[in-house]
Amino acid sequence: HAQSVPRGGGLAIMLAWCAGMFVAVAAGWIRPGWLAGLLVPAGLLALTGWLDDHRPLSVRLRLAVQFLTAGIALAIYFQSVKPDVSGLLLPVFLFALMWHSNLFNFMDGSHGMAAGQAIFVALAYMLLSWRSGEPEVLLISALLAAACAGFLPWNFPSARIFMGDVASVPLGFMLAGLGIYAWTAGIFPLPVLILLLSVFLVDASLTLINRIRRGQEWYTAHTEHAYQRLISSGWSHQRTCLAYQSVNLLAVVPAAWLIIRYPEWSWTIAAGVLGLEALLWWMVYSKSFVTQEQ
What we know:
mainly alpha, about 0% strand, disordered C terminus
């Protein structure tokens, strides 16, 4: 941005969602276990993010808090829900929670980008939970979507404030956590979960891999994500955000429907969409790189 844009506005998202969660538990609409398994870890991440937004914390401290919160959530999950999955998946779940928490933070750098993606994923969870008759995931997802929708007018089409770490990190954590729960509960298959998260997953992961391949300090701030390169090459923030959501609506949603309709083709369909997104990332990266070099 040519001018500084304040961050930390995501505190409103977290306060609204937490208030909704307490009301839902008090009314008996969701089980109290969700507070310990989801709200407490998300609250710890939000507190750490709030501090980091105002006085940057060390990478080690932030990773330690993320490891602790992910461990708390998974311990409660395996103890209370007792999912029918192998305990060998615990490290995978731990990595998934931490990585998605961070990549959501990485992608919170353009108008409406993070809030728009959170709304899309939460609405998808709502629809699939309604289809499967799972009211708790439906309600929690609805609260997330509503909280982000209330913030969106302040962040899109012109960003007067960004959500910052106080919301981007816990949002990434909650969307991944709800997704893992929904998959293991049979609400939707794993390929659908991967696709719903894929536009951020592909951009952040390929960018990180490319930075490591080039011997760069991958853990430092940079402007090499596809959305950043689109903006640096002349695209507006609004156009960039709409492009990402267009991929969601035109590729991810139809693919998710096809997977549910034809489960025997699930991984083939998912691989096709992920390959398309990877191709788009490469096209954006290559074009922007040439533009910057010139």
